[in-house]
Design a protein that fits this description.
The chain has five helices and 21 strands. With 396 residues, it is mostly beta strands. Helix 2 crosses helix 3.
Length: 396
């Protein structure tokens, strides 16, 4: 029988923050106007998208939000409370049409926020006073002007045709959300999508503003994660709202790819350190990055330096069925949090070929953490416990 061990919520908070970033990044704006149950006419997906794109642009959105989270098993949550990123919460959302956004969630154990200024994304957890930051990749071209010509119906249809080669798309389904005639679209991986069942987006038929976004696990009719908003107002949002407001004494983990200082196109005048040989040359420990892991080919390896300590991130496979591996030097305390603490999750202890660790199995994936030969490992992906443990054991 597995014993229980505690694990810091810092690592888990980062993973949940990444999912919430996906939810918030669509610019949710549910207009709670009420009073009407009218539905829009039944039309094809391409015309519905065209109608949304042709609507007058929204200058900005401010709204109250509700975050529904059924991802973490109740038995794993600490009795003293957790970050709002790990449970149901409410708060505020601000969004700008250039992609900047700020999401604040409140709970009795501290607040959390996810902020993007268009160049970085920062997730802060007040309960542990810790933050994770990631630099967004630079695009090749500048963002298109607001007065740029909207794509034609034929162009939209061609784009949807490419999308449906890799994803199953259903809809749009005419519906009504908070008194607003709306369209609902559901997208699902056709093959190996890991444990992901589908994602659902609902948008206002009149102005194209997304109303709700949810993520569903396989064979589960209820969303595992969902973000929706009410009391919405439209108009410009002050630039100061999107400024990074992390406390000076917070523990900040930067997961941005590190640069080698050589001339290149990456920010800071250098190139990101990528590839097994280049990353290994920067590490004080032996990197375990086999060419394949649990049957998935290695796609990328890059260097990060959270708290000034070298760490490696490896990606195996692609899409929602991918596996991610993070490796740090264990004797330095680990760059992604310590075991134990007041906010610790209660998780089963596992043994990975002599290395002690813990496992968190959720509806959308599994996280395995363990230490072996002086190296701390985190393995996570949208896979079941058996696949995650197999991948961990193959890290040699």
């Amino acid at each position: 029988m597995h014993r229980l061990r505690t694990i810091s919520t810092r690592r888990l908070t980062f993973l949940i923050a990444a999912l919430v970033t996906l939810l918030a990044g669509v610019g949710i704006a549910q207009a709670a106007l009420g009073g009407s149950d009218a539905r829009p006419p039944q039309i094809g997906l391409a015309p519905a998208v065209k109608q949304a794109l042709d609507a007058p642009p929204v200058a900005g959105v401010s709204a109250r939000v509700e975050f529904d989270n059924r991802l973490i098993p109740a038995g794993s949550l600490p009795a003293r409370g957790v970050s709002p990123l790990l449970s149901n919460a409410s708060g505020r959302l601000w969004w700008a049409p250039d992609g900047r956004f700020r999401l604040e969630l409140q709970s009795d154990r501290g607040d959390a926020q996810i902020v993007s200024d268009g160049e970085t994304i920062t997730a802060y957890d007040g309960a542990s006073n810790s933050a994770y930051r990631f630099a967004l990749p630079k695009g090749r071209d500048a963002a298109p002007a607001h007065d740029a010509a909207a794509p034609t119906l034929a162009q939209i249809q061609r784009g949807l045709d490419r999308l449906t080669r890799k994803w199953d798309v259903s809809g749009p389904q005419p519906t009504n959300v908070a008194g607003r005639p709306s369209y609902s679209v559901r997208i699902a991986p056709p093959g190996d999508g890991g444990l992901l069942g589908a994602a659902q987006l609902v948008w206002d038929a009149a102005n194209g503003a997304p109303l709700r976004f949810g993520i569903y696990a396989d064979d589960d009719p209820e969303p595992v994660l969902q973000l929706s908003a009410s009391d919405v107002s439209y108009g410009p949002v002050d630039d100061s709202v999107f400024a990074d407001a992390i406390p000076a004494d917070a523990t900040v983990t930067d997961l941005s790819p590190q640069l080698d200082g050589l001339p290149g196109k990456a920010h800071g005048g250098g190139r990101a350190v990528r590839g097994v040989a280049a990353v290994q040359a920067q590490l004080p420990f032996r990197l375990a990055a086999p060419e394949s892991l649990a049957g998935l080919p290695r796609r990328a390896v890059w260097l990060v330096r959270p708290h000034g300590e070298e760490a490696a991130i490896s990606l195996y496979g692609e899409g929602v069925g991918a596996l991610v591996v993070v490796q740090t030097q264990a004797e330095r305390g680990g760059a992604f949090g310590q075991m134990g603490g007041d906010h610790a999750l209660q998780l089963p202890q596992i043994n990975i070929d002599g290395g002690s660790g813990s496992e968190l199995a959720t509806a959308l994936g599994t996280i395995v953490t363990f230490e072996r030969d002086g190296v701390g490992h985190v393995v996570f992906g949208s896979v079941g416990p058996q696949a995650a443990e197999t991948a961990a054991r193959e890290l040699r």
